[in-house]
Specification:
Radius of gyration: 23 Å
Strand order of the largest sheet: 5-6-1-7-8
Number of helices: 15
Shape: globular
Order of helices and strands: EHEEHHEHEEHHEHEHHHHHEHEEHEH
Largest sheet: 5 strands, mixed
CATH topology of the largest domain: Dna Ligase, domain 1
CATH superfamily of the largest domain: DNA polymerase, Y-family, little finger domain
CATH architecture of the largest domain: 2-Layer Sandwich
Number of domains: 4
CATH class of the largest domain: Alpha Beta
Structural class: alpha+beta
Length: about 375
């Protein structure tokens, strides 16, 4: 079973803004070169999509209501959704904040048929969380994902095992995992436009055109996906990035943004009970070329102060920049639970003081919502 929330961020916001139900709503930052994080189905009907530049979305949908994202709230709602899943089965593989695979084979005797279990999940999410979900049910992860996509929004679709191939062969080639615009162009040159076309194409021809991906697409076109639902999926990395309103060479702007991103990443680490052993930064230049640099840390950390110091060191090591910078990002990798991570002892009490202040800031934000403690350098300039 694949369960996916419908327009998750928008749906969460509409719980507090029922007056916006049925209207064009976009979640994202309205200024600069930000992107759409989520769009209501009314906005999607005119072409607005997630990850689309906000300026493009507002050109297509000038009357849309834009809501600033509340990521902490989305994490809380996500936890409520996952709690519903775990009450159904212990075998839950969370893919993101708003979707997961569930192996319900061990729940059939207790809860009924797959359709009855799917209906139960949808009812409980609606009643207990206040949003809607779409459910796809099939014999494999890939086909279950296809089913949930095809029944959106607020629907449920069961694809019987013995009718899997028949169903898949009615779909366009884009339904296969991994088929984006470039792959679609390659396949089109071979006269391949549907899943049935892929299945009918000799495997050597697909391999010659697409390499290993050709093998994968051929297997999927016949419904072959032996992967099991893997519970307790550990996130491998956690990061944040920012696209500047104007490309910049200015070190002051770059390091200030690194400070902001370091605090954002550290806060998400602590919220998840994780710390990271490897730090990485990402830079995208004006011509969209991208470079990244990383370093292993002496010990795992969730401290913004330590993350920022390492990020600035990586930036300095790059030397002078050949072009202005369009985007900068910070990422922590090799994540582990703080309960199992070895502690980093220090002779400098300021290190502990900084992290303690960050933890206090977490508590204040949790209790008072928008209130938070930030470094003075991140405060807006005082108006004269």
């Amino acid at each position: 079973m694949h369960v996916d929330m419908d327009a998750f961020f928008v749906s969460v916001e509409l719980r507090d803004r029922p007056d916006l139900v049925g209207k064009m709503v976009i979640v994202g930052h309205p200024e600069g070169r930000s992107v759409v994080l989520s769009a209501s189905y009314e906005a999607r009907a005119v072409g607005v999509r997630s990850a689309m530049p906000m300026v493009t979305a507002l050109r297509m949908c000038p009357t849309a209501v834009v809501i600033m994202p509340r990521h902490r709230l989305y994490q809380e709602v996500s936890a409520d959704v996952m709690a519903v899943f775990h009450s159904i089965t212990d075998t839950v593989e969370q893919l993101s904040v708003d979707e997961a695979f569930l192996d319900i084979s061990g729940s059939l005797r207790r809860l009924g048929t797959p359709l009855q279990i799917g209906a139960l999940i949808r009812r409980r999410i609606s009643a207990e969380v206040g949003i809607t979900a779409s459910v796809g049910i099939a014999a494999s992860k890939f086909v279950a994902k296809v089913a949930s996509t095809r029944c959106k929004p607020d629907g449920m679709l069961l694809i019987e095992k013995d009718r899997t191939v028949e169903y898949l062969h009615t779909l366009p080639v884009e339904a296969l995992w991994g088929v984006g615009a470039k792959t679609r162009e390659v396949l089109a040159r071979l006269g391949i436009f549907t899943v049935a076309d892929v299945a009918a194409t000799p495997l050597p021809a697909l391999q010659k055109a697409l390499g290993a991906m050709g093998v994968s697409l051929h297997a999927l076109s016949w419904g072959i996906d032996p992967r099991r639902v893997t519970p307790e999926h550990q996130e491998k990395s956690l990061g944040a990035e920012e696209t500047f309103a104007q490309d910049t060479f200015d070190d002051e702007i770059l390091t200030r943004e690194l400070l902001r991103l370091s605090h954002r990443v550290a806060g998400r680490l602590r919220e998840s009970g994780l710390s990271g052993r490897t730090l990485a930064i990402k830079i995208k230049y004006a011509d969209f070329s991208t470079i990244s640099r990383s370093k292993a840390l002496s010990a795992s950390t969730d401290s913004a102060t330590q993350i920022y110091a390492g990020a600035v060191a990586l930036l300095r090591a790059l030397g002078s920049r050949p072009q202005s910078v369009r985007l900068i990002g910070v990422r922590m990798e090799k994540l582990e639970s703080v309960d199992s991570a070895p502690l980093q002892f220090t002779l400098d009490p300021r290190d502990d003081n900084s992290r303690n202040a960050e933890v206090v800031g977490d508590a204040i934000a949790a209790r008072f919502g928008t209130a938070k403690i930030v470094p003075a350098r991140l405060l807006p300039p005082r108006r004269k």
